[in-house]
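Subject: Sanity check before I submit

Could someone independently write out the structure tokens for this chain? I want to compare against mine line by line before I put it in a report. The sequence has 176 residues.
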Amino acid sequence: MAPVEPTELDTLSGVPEEERGRSGTWARRVFIAVLTLLVLAGSVGLLGGHTATATASADGYRLTLHYPGIERAGIDTLWELKVVHPGGFPGPVTVAVTGSYFDLFETQGFYPTPSSTTRDGTNVYMTFTKPPGDTFVVMFDAYIQPYSVFGKKATVSVMRDGMAVASIHYHTWLVP
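---
Independent answer below. Compare away.
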């Protein structure tokens, strides 16, 4: 078969053969490099969900919160608040959490179950009977709602006489 001669309308006329494929070659190399980085990041756990921990101390109370720092929709999550008050608690423990934060979750329940719950325009207030000892732990059994796509900021506080004694500010990020 005879070689095809370039015409006036041919966009490659005058371009040497060896230069024709260079941009395509570099584009493929960049794509493979990005793909390799994504596979490596996923293999070491950088792209999955991560539980974060935050702490705060004030007025004799020490709070430790384990919460979903980065998560995907439809995944079970860990939300656990540990409150320590050396010498024991003077009475029931009231925990306040930004109410809109719970919109992210399909709730299975709190353990232990609060003896009372109320909500104002900002917070959900959960009151638990006085725990024995100086450590109280509440867990929230839930998973991220399938339709949740962004994330939320929240604050969790231990309340005494209607005032926040110790607070933790945190943020849950959602990824596709």
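---
OP: Matches mine. For the report I'm noting this point. The first helix runs from residue 17 to 20.
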